[in-house]
Amino acid sequence: MIPIQEITLHKLQMKLKHPFNTSFGTVQNKEFFIIEAKNQAGDIGYGESVAFTSPWYTEETTKTTEHMLTDFLIPLLKANPPKHPEDVHEIFSGIRRNNMAKAGLEMALWDLFAKERRSSLASLLGGKRKHIDVGMSIGMQATNEELIQKIKEAKEQGFKRIKLKIAPGNDLELLAKVREAFPDLPLMADANSAYSLADIDHLKQLDQFNLMMIEQPLQHDDVVDHARLQERIETPICLDESIHSLEDVKRAHSLGSCQVINVKAGRVGGLTEAKNIHDFCVENKLDLWCGGMLEAGVGRAHNIALTALTGFNLPGDTAGSLHYWHEDIIKPNVVVQDGQIAVTEDPGIGYTVDRAKLEKYRIKKERFHF
Ligand code: OSB
Ligand code: MG
Question: Cα 329–307–1 angle (5° rounding)?
């Protein structure tokens, strides 16, 4: 790897077109970092941090991301220049968790390294797909009618599966209505940890809806109770919040806690660990797909590159740029056509950061010289 010259943190504030509602809260105003890594040859790589401003998805926030990057991760990188982006996971391993902060920086280095080699990030990671299948995640709506309308639109746009958000009191009746309207739709539900093991009999009733899976029904840090639940329900369990590392996947697999893994590079500390999890899932025949964190274009582009790996055998949550944003910070926009996104062969993430847009949404900039 060509030596790094400087790292720049661009703190951005962007407002989603519509609030996104889940069992744990609502996201509309996003504050996050675009992390820029420049080498001595002048190539630039970009990463995006995915923590929200409040810690209800995981413990990380935009502020903890900044603290970790400036006080620990950037100094560690300065002291330990990586030869390959795969080294970064190890360089950061002395710092507990804070995976989203680690991932934002690690992903900038993957993009940079791919650009140094004039290779697309997708092919550098070992991705072979030219197109990826995508589904849509629809947040909770005020009424069932609005939800059904949203599903109809997503279906018409060709999305390959629909994910709904559920919570106690907003689940069985809603799913019955949706199934009635769309009997054959590839459908799944995400609870974002809204239930407990005491709800087993209630959750058992999900089996009647022929769901592809139920995502993270129980505690955010649990793999034991999910195994108990999986013994009792037919619907495959998918783990999201519980998975922070390959070790977590191994434990979940050995306990029988799930049949499907949702990988988010941010949640597992970067692309290297995401790839390790991918390889394990292929070897052990676990279904796998790439989740989303309502990313702007840089994060979205990384998700596309990762999903080009063929072990991602189910449609992910990567929608097009303009689904969430009035305008994106990359050129061109991410576009979904017939439920697919084309994997670019251009160097690195294959999308250009629109510097004028970056500045328009930027509320803070910090530069670190190496
Ligand atoms: O649980 O996958 C989740 C959004 C924010 C936080 C957590 C989740 C989600 C989504 C939407 O479901 C994913 C996306 O479309 O980016
Ligand atoms: Mg989820």
Answer: 75
